[in-house]
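anyone else get weird line breaks when pasting these?? whatever heres mine. first is seq + tokens for prot A
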Amino acid sequence: MIQSFQHKGLKELLETGRSKRVDAKQRARVLVILNLLDDATCPEDMALPGLRFHPYKNTDPRLFSVDVSGPWRILFKWSDDGPIEVDLAQPH
């Protein structure tokens, strides 16, 4: 279960199914990813076709990334309690 968010729109989208803070073109895919992440029991559960799951740039070993579209990524850290600091960003 997701423990915390950095992006307020992601929390709103997961809780209500909608958010004006997440681009309309991305909402459906982001919601699918958030539901998968919410159900994940380890980071590797996100290693699904099309998500391009990977550790993020050798910074914090707990930081991971999955693709949304184009340059957009969902970034998250993994703690003993599950995903934390979930964010939607254009890191490149």
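and prot B, same format (seq, then tokens)
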Amino acid sequence: MTRPRAYPVPFVLEREPARHAYLLTNVSLETVHGVTFTLHGAGVMAVSPPRTLRPEHGIEVTIATGRRDAILVVRWFRPNGTEYLWRVAF
């Protein structure tokens, strides 16, 4: 019996601590839709509408926090409509 392969997270998150900026880049071969960010814990982040992210394109998000216990949740939909969430602790 062959098991299905796990779906890898299609993003790379680059951090620029001096600017409190984070660049989320789609490194997959498919376009993802409805990309949103939610911040849990101490910190402030601007609200942005859901975005479509084509391969090799990125979205920058700025998070102001003085603590290291916040969690960024990235939410997106694959082309088939399946929803995914990725929790990033920093």
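btw re prot B: The radius of gyration is 14 Å. The longest strand covers residues 32-40.
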